[in-house]
Design goal:
metal-binding, binds iron/sulfur cluster, 14 strands, about 400 residues, 10-stranded mixed sheet, binds S-adenosyl-L-homocysteine, TIM Barrel, two-stranded parallel sheet, 4Fe-4S, methyltransferase, tRNA binding, 2 domains, about 15% strand, DNA polymerase, domain 1
């Protein structure tokens, strides 16, 4: 039996090549792409402007399949969270955050994560596997058309778009699942798919320096960097990847990225941890880091830590967060404090998939993580050291 090609896995060029293999002209790929990504079609028979012979061919060889929805919860504040199945007992989360003038979708790129930051529950699960293109873009496809269905909005390019912004801030480190992530990004930007501008798509990374450079060449969307510490000693303990790519190298990469970025600043995310990284001296160190002799144009986004039991960490008190923000702002740095959304459905940063985590499988996941790190050889040698 031949396996069906999932058309959600194909970027625009691959879809043209696929149509070529079926003996079809390139414009058919464009039509197909619009049916898939603008009308949310998964049934080839609905694609009425395609010849019946082509539809019949597609039915026997292809499929349009997004990850299946396991659960769907809406918070009192309108935040909606889906848990989607990515096979072998793994699930990832996709979160929709409605705001007055925009709708932001937070998507996942890996099941688990190998970076293992101290304050992150995804990291604590260990690495499980990379998501495919279809599983990454499938989250946007599923969410956009689910939201429209709920509201009774017609699909198609003229239908009111529900998702205006995408942030890769769900589970996983996008730059350690590079190719599928970039392919999915290209589909988000493509006019025959979602047509989002580069400014409205943000990739968040813990700081995989060589991949930041690669992204600047391949698909420079807005960049958020998870900083969380003002010096190497502190960051080594919070974001283990810092031992491989210390702050000086990370800041250099940010400066290089800015030459290609759609915005003229980098967003630094900073998780506020009580008594760990939230002192006045840390704020002053941050100012020196980004405004010193070689400045990095940036904004700060302070994220109140979302606690989970095993972390042994607590959230900074609100007055402390405000005082910290004030020091940065007094130095002229635009600083925001992230509102916590979807608390009642565990949809906040770092809480994703908390409730589905099967603790009996943590050992198995940790083993897979070590294998993954071994596969990446020297790049991950140091992470193995500290996570063991
Ligand atoms: N791996 C990427 C993207 C996913 S994490 C990265 O680390 O940037 C998205 C953001 O949520 C990151 O800034 C991350 O540090 C933050 N985060 C993780 N766990 C958190 C927690 N428990 N509370 C608050 N923010 C958290
Ligand atoms: Fe991975 Fe990001 Fe969590 Fe760190 S914060 S463990 S990089 S998902």
């Amino acid at each position: 039996m031949t396996t069906l090609t999932n058309l959600l896995d194909l970027d625009p060029a691959q879809l043209v090549a696929y149509c070529g293999e079926l003996g079809e002209k390139p414009f058919r790929a464009k039509q197909l792409q619009r049916w898939i990504h603008q009308f949310g079609a998964s049934d080839f028979d609905a694609m009425t402007d395609l010849a019946k012979s082509l539809r019949d061919k597609l039915k026997t060889r292809a499929t349009i399949t997004a990850p299946a929805i396991i659960s769907d919860h809406t918070s009192a504040d309108g935040t909606r969270k889906w848990l989607v199945d990515v096979g072998n007992g793994n699930a990832v989360e996709t979160v929709y955050i409605p705001e007055e003038n925009r709708g932001t979708l937070c998507i996942s790129t890996q099941a688990g994560c190998a970076v293992n930051c101290r304050f992150c529950s995804t990291g604590k699960q260990g690495f499980n596997r990379n998501l495919s293109v279809g599983e990454i873009i499938g989250q946007l496809w599923m969410a956009e058309f689910e939201l429209r269905r709920t509201k009774g909005i017609a699909p198609g390019p003229k239908g009111e778009r529900q998702i205006t912004n995408v942030v890769m801030m769900g589970m996983g480190e996008p730059l350690l699942n590079y190719e599928p992530t970039v392919t999915a990004l290209k589909l988000m930007l493509d006019d025959n798919a979602y047509g989002l501008s580069r400014r409205r798509v943000t990739l968040s990374t813990s700081g995989v320096v060589p991949m930041i450079d690669k992204l600047s060449q391949d698909c420079p969307v807005a960049l958020a960097v998870s900083l969380h510490a003002s010096n190497d000693a502190l960051r080594d303990g919070l974001v283990p990847l810092n031992r491989k790519y210390p702050l000086r190298e990370l800041m250099d990469a940010c400066r290089r990225y800015l030459a290609f970025a759609p915005r003229d600043f980098i967003t630094f995310e900073y998780c506020m941890l009580d008594g760990v990284n939230d002192g006045d001296q840390h704020a002053r160190e941050l100012i020196a880091l980004v405004q010193g002799s070689n400045p990095v144009p940036c904004k700060f986004n302070l994220i109140p830590f979302n606690p989970f039991p095993e972390s042994g960490l607590t959230r900074s008190q609100n007055p402390r967060i405000k005082a910290f923000a004030q020091i940065l702002m007094d130095a002229g740095i635009v600083t925001t404090i992230r509102k916590t959304r979807g608390d009642d459905i565990d949809a906040a940063c770092g809480q994703l998939a908390g409730e589905v985590k099967d603790r009996t499988r943590v050992q198995e996941r940790m083993k897979k993580m070590t294998e993954y790190q071994e596969k990446f050889g020297k790049d991950f040698g140091r992470i193995v050291e500290i996570s063991s």
